[in-house]
Amino acid sequence: MKVCDFKKFFLIIFVFFILFSLNSCGTISKISSGVVSQFSESFGKKKKKEEEPILAELLREAERNFAKGNYEKAYETYKEIRDKFPGSPQAVLAQLRMADAKFWEGEYLEAIALYEEFEKFYPNNEAIPYVIYQIGTCYYKMKRSYDRDQSYTEKAISAYQRLLQNFPESPYRAEAEKRIKELRELLAQHELYVAKFYYKIKYYRGAYQRILYIINTYPDTYASKEAQKLLLTYYQKALLETKDLTEGTKKDFWGDKVP
């Protein structure tokens, strides 16, 4: 064997030995892993850089539509941002703006669901006081007249009170307090309406109990002042009804004597 051929043969054997040694101790795996990691990071940065103009344009488009009152189009674009660019600051903003779009469109129940979803996923976000305020405002917008069901009124008060309790320094504090007072008056007026209805159908004990409830629960309302004027009359009627029920000359709604 020639000297040059021998050197080539020795070099091949040496390289094979080195590769075998590296592979047996996991070095090749580590090296390849590092290369892949660096490549992925580089590729990720490149992809992110390429997506930035697209993301910025989508956000501008959504904001333009929102400003023009095209809330449905704005919503769809915000949704696209949220779905296509998860984890980005723009996606977080888009999720909040989706709720805003539904709010301004008057779709309050859908807006509430989206606001609550945002609060669930981003409980420490700086926008949370605004989110809670908006939940209360959605319910506030759906409140009904005093002669109807007051479930939304109660939920609005609950949301505003949660805002005041958890974020006492919130810029929405003054408006929340103002609305709570207004909503409490509505609840009191509802109770007064029911009391007068009971009185009208001669269910005097029920009417009197409602009057007492108004005075004790909503003492700072106009309804309470009116209830105080009716208190003595309703009390006297309730006494007479109790007497009639006890003597059996009158039966309650279910045809029974007084408990």
UniProtKB/TrEMBL annotation:
InterPro entries referenced in this protein's UniProt entry, alphabetically: BamD (IPR017689), BamD-like (IPR039565), TPR-like_helical_dom_sf (IPR011990)
Domain spans labelled Outer membrane lipoprotein BamD-like: 57-241
What's in the keyword line of the UniProt record?
Cell outer membrane, Membrane, Signal
Membrane as a keyword? yes
UniProt-listed PANTHER family: CELL DIVISION COORDINATOR CPOB, SOLUBLE LYTIC MUREIN TRANSGLYCOSYLASE-RELATED
The protein's name is Outer membrane protein assembly factor BamD
